[in-house]
Automatic annotation (TrEMBL):
Source organism of this protein record: Fasciola gigantica (Giant liver fluke)
Protein name per UniProt: Uncharacterized protein
Entry keyword Oxidoreductase: no
Disordered as annotated region, ranges: 54-76
Gene Ontology biological process: axoneme assembly
Keywords: Cell projection, Cytoplasm, Cytoskeleton
Location of this chain's protein in the cell: Cell projection, Cilium; Cytoplasm, Cytoskeleton
Gene Ontology CC entries for this record: axonemal microtubule
Keyword Cytoplasm attached: yes
Signal sequence extent: none
Assigned protein family: Belongs to the PIERCE1 family.
Amino acid sequence: MPFLGDYNKRYKTSEYIVHQSGQEQKMNTNDSSFVQLDDNDCVCVKTKQKSEPVDPCDPNLWMPNDRPDGVPEGAKTSDYYTVAENLPKKFNEPDLFQGYERRQTNPLYRTTNAEYGRLKPNVHTMNAVYHARNQDFTRRYGKSGNYRNHSLNTAMDQKIV
């Protein structure tokens, strides 16, 4: 990223207040850094070790680059929320789900349901509680097997053209 602003306006400091998007944040720099304001009143830091300045206004520094939702790879639901003790592993580790965002679809045929369904689950969309159903129905009716129709079929077969 290019170094913005007047290059002669450098201030050697150990602490500087950053005014970015209406929020006041403290930024600590070591003794070998220079802090500079650019045209947008954002602070750019240039260190003596690196030839490129570090721009705190760059969103790539504030959000991890690995996922668009801002959640780092390998994050667990239990890191962000209180989860039940009997929560299955697939709900605690959403990165186990595979098969999302394989190919781009034509925007003309894209729907809101398809847009929501193409997003990979993350820690904010996973369940924190899992209530398993009992297996009474399966145990009782699974022994007898499925119903089998023994009636006579008198309808004519339809031709597939």
